[in-house]
TrEMBL record, chains A, B:
Protein name, per record: MarR family transcriptional regulator
Annotated signal sequence range: none
Domain HTH marR-type residue range list: 1-149
Record-linked Pfam families: MarR_2
Amino acid sequence: MATNGTRPLTPREERAWDGYRRMQGLLSSQLNRQLMADTGLSDADFAILSALLGAPRHRLRGLALRCEVQWEKSRLSHHLGRMQTRGLVVREECVEDSRGAVFQLTPEGKAAVEAATGDRVAAVRTYLLDLLTPEQLDALTEISGAVLARLAEDDAHLRAAAELARAV
Amino acid sequence: MATNGTRPLTPREERAWDGYRRMQGLLSSQLNRQLMADTGLSDADFAILSALLGAPRHRLRGLALRCEVQWEKSRLSHHLGRMQTRGLVVREECVEDSRGAVFQLTPEGKAAVEAATGDRVAAVRTYLLDLLTPEQLDALTEISGAVLARLAEDDAHLRAAAELARAV
DNA sequence: CGCAACTGGATGATGCGTCAACCAATGGCT
DNA sequence: AGCCATTGGTTGACGCATCATCCAGTTGCG
């Protein structure tokens, strides 16, 4: 990580990175702010709630939820704790693994997500999707595909390294 | 904000949004984590420091800095406070407007950014730029251009509304 | 069986980001 | 000159994200 034969960015790269950086910051804060104002739910709340909404009995194992939203476990745990005190979610014991936890949407939680979904979609359209041509939509899909693939690969390497370390 | 004749997302839009969302979250946390591990600087630190590095005498008025990084003023103030106690930056009085503040890079701050720049560029290449074709780079630039233009427009409307309110 | 390693998850400390309130300096208007 | 609205910036409170640590239940291996 220390040795860098890194060439500087070309103007083209510079523009792309700079644009992405600016967009990323402003867009996510705008979406977050708007959702919060419209519905009282943060982006994070919404991610959790809609994952639960999409699950069989509106209940999901902690681990499954973690895979779904890709958060660190302590973040998830803290956030679920807060959401529980707000009455959006309940924690229950897990039958097949008694150290595990299962989280379920409360009626209030369900109502909240359902109410929020429309606003969220509208905002995403307003500030992103409706601004792009079909080609740009596809380009965005491909770009994120490439980046996510790279990140996943990295992750796999980490696992492999852990495997090796265990073998020693 | 409440009435939504919003149609649901098409599959194409769905893929684009979902991809962007996932990429955004993982990419920024990866870049942040890596920069922090390599250099002890957060993404936020780096943004401030490189803005200062690019300024005339490595000094910038608070307001100018705010335009540069596009943060809320209280965020900037808090962060600069912390950076000052870490010795990366100094706050000085402003001559032409005595309620203003000027911030300057300390030698340590300068050294820190300069050391960090290479790592940052390398990481951005590894996880984003090197994964994309030239066309994708341009697409990214256009996409962010469109989004930023929309956000700016919104901003202008807000200003105009404020103007109107003043006129009443 | 019994012990060690691992795993799902919780917790506490700490730094960050946002909001609202605040303060003093400034500039415009009469 | 005098007043009021505005602006540049700070502060405090509060919720969120991360790290390290911890704990109990589980699994694998001898």
